[in-house]
Amino acid sequence: MNFRILVIFVIILIAFSLSALGQAKPVSEQLADTAMNRIWVDARNQPGIPPKWNYEQGVILKAIEQMWYATGDAKYFRHIQKGMDYWIDENGNHKDYHLEEYNIDHVTPATAMLTLFRATGNEKYRKMAEMFRSQLKTHPRTNEGGFWHKKIYPYQMWLDGLYMGQPFYAEYSSIFGEDNWNDIANQFVWMEKHSRDAKTGLLYHGWDESKQQKWADKTTGRSPHVWGRAMGWYAMGLVDTLEHFPKDHPRRGELIAILEREAAAIEKYQDKATGVWYDIIDLPERKPNYIESSCSAMFVYAIARGVREGYLSERYMKVAARGWAGIKKEFIKVNAQGNTDWEGTVSVSGLGGNPYRDGSFEYYMTEKLRTNDAKGLGPAIRAALAMESYERGWPGHGKTVLLDDFFNHEVRKSKITAGDEAWHYKWDERPDAGYYTLGSIFRGYGARISSLSSAPNAANLAGASVYIIVDPDTDKETAKPNFVEPQHVKAIADWVKRGGVLVMFGNDAQNAELDRFNTLAKEFGIQFNKDRKFEVINNDYKMGGVDIAAGNEIFTTARKIFIKEIASLSLSGKARAVVTARGDNVMAVAKYGKGTVFVLGDPWLYNEYVDGRRLPPEFENFKAAQDLSRWLLGQTKRK
Description:
Layout: H1 2-23, H2 27-37, H3 55-71, H4 74-85, H5 110-120, H6 123-138, E1 156-158, H7 159-176, H8 181-195, E2 206-208, H9 228-242, H10 252-268, H11 293-308, H12 317-330, E3 332-334, E4 340-342, E5 345-346, H13 361-366, E6 369-370, H14 374-392, E7 400-404, E8 410-413, E9 420-423, H15 436-444, E10 448-452, H16 458-461, E11 466-470, H17 486-497, E12 501-505, H18 515-522, E13 526-528, E14 545-547, E15 560-562, E16 569-571, E17 576-581, E18 584-592, E19 595-600, H19 621-634
Parallel strand pairs: 7-10, 7-11, 11-12, 12-19
Antiparallel strand pairs: 1-2, 3-4, 5-6, 8-9, 13-16, 14-15, 17-18, 18-19
């Protein structure tokens, strides 16, 4: 008897230990591990890659991309690259895509091709992206101009299709300079117009322009029911499209207004008992309706992201927080092996086809639930990232981080479009020399990022909380460089005095203009020395290693960083060093009036040394970027 009790006790202890182990990492990482290693496992020995090209992989890889930029861990980039390379044959052709099918779902994974092209510049990914763009050029449309969901579903628009096609269409247009913004906006406007119930604000799953389908209402063309995941696809499609939609485009406001209306409907139908949402949203009392995980994750992600980006009122975070609490209780489980499972996702729900799906309540209830279904797992990762960010705090909420594009304005002939492009340390640059990762960190803290391409003055600095100037141009880099002049020094110093936070990232004297830059630094008791410290030869990274002592006021988590070929600093007055190494002042801060200045003689936190693809893992530059960003935002007041 005692032996049996002992065995039971040991089993319980092991189960508890495995569960605790599974919970040690953030939920986002646990779910990402499941997505990369435990789905699509078959004889091909390619876990995380489906046997056929389909939209589910795109859903997962978009989440994995966000994991990469949220953690700086290159394993996520490698998973994306492996997942896309799998489909490209030795001649650079796609192994499993047929344009003539005109299936809008097949466009979705191509967003990962765009990610890889932007990060690597490899033309094979561009070729793939252009192929999917060609589908949209000839894809069948309704008479009004909306994309058919599929060729086999003529004259039909489904809410699902807005996620499947528009984020790719928008990102492609942004990268390659195509003006498709009215067409993109129209897709959302028309879908809402035809599917929205004016009384409830809810959106019906599909719309048949011809009104010939058995499931279509003969007056409105709408399908009979409001399916949760369809509304989730539409909401995610909106926020992912807005990511790329020009901020100054007159129709941007229409998309935000649509998102606001959908968020209001989502809030209204949130289940009070669990905090999540039902499969058929507006029929919670009808049996056997059930709470469904994929739509719940999509709603939480879209709302949290919408609030963070400023599209939605802050009050909606209560909706997201209740939803997230419900998700963790109802759908996230740790199995006996210590692995995290995502439960409660309906496998599929469609309209028409063969066998015919009539859109009835009874039909929706026949579709099976799955564990670790990609359609729920991908949105769950994104919801987890959004809510973990919120729970850590948004010190940047309501604040703008402004990146100089005036003193640092190197221009070259674009490799993508017909004109020229500004490059080197820009927010939207994903190759090595860009600041995309740094911008993502600021945004993860709730801040908005922007660029200033004109000379700084009181008016254009007024809305900024943090202003970053990096690597001012020399006359060797730029034909007519914009040098720091006395009027610029006064405008910037006055702004800092009023409470602004200035970041001055210099460079060694061979690669940056320091004489005039020093006239600005002098105001704060700091000077860039014309030297070149921490030279690194043949990628011997240890030559640039700097240890950060525990208790550093800025770098609270990073213990070892990498720097390379910097200008050391001379300090006077109230300026003081916050990082020193080998007898040199490496980083310094100064209080100036109500504001703060941070200075380093190097651009430092560009993608090459932050996104995880280059540095050995012993260097914690990503953590350092997080620490610095959080500290900078913490020095500011909300505008």
